[in-house]
Amino acid sequence: MNLLLDTHVALWAITDSPRLSARARELLSAPHASVWVSAVSVWEIAIKHALARGDMPVSGQEALRWFQVSGYRLLAIEAHHASAVEDLPPHHQDPFDRLLVAQALVEPMRLLTHDATVARYSDSILRV
Known about the structure:
Elements: E1 2-5, H1 7-14, H2 22-29, E2 34-38, H3 39-50, H4 60-69, E3 73-75, H5 79-84, H6 95-106, E4 110-113, H7 116-119, E5 125-127
Parallel strand pairs: 1-2, 1-4, 2-3, 4-5
Helix pairs in contact: 3-4
């Protein structure tokens, strides 16, 4: 199963955060799981870290290294991912989340998120 991680889930996973649910841990460690992190997440982390607001403790480069060390596969942003955003209902206004949803639906992949609003897009999105 191809699992695409929402940015916060990816960060919780690489830091072994207690916020990562038992269900998410189970899915991530499943024998047939292929875990993906999107370039969208690396971009989001880099932007928020550069703003130095304190809510993003790692840089994009640090996160990228941790994702690679953890064995996560990296999903590039393709033009067809970007164009699929326009077909999404307006549940969420965050451009990073909207692009992650579009990528998950286009590929297709199961998107793991903790965000109830993101989970509204499709039953293939798992709220963990």
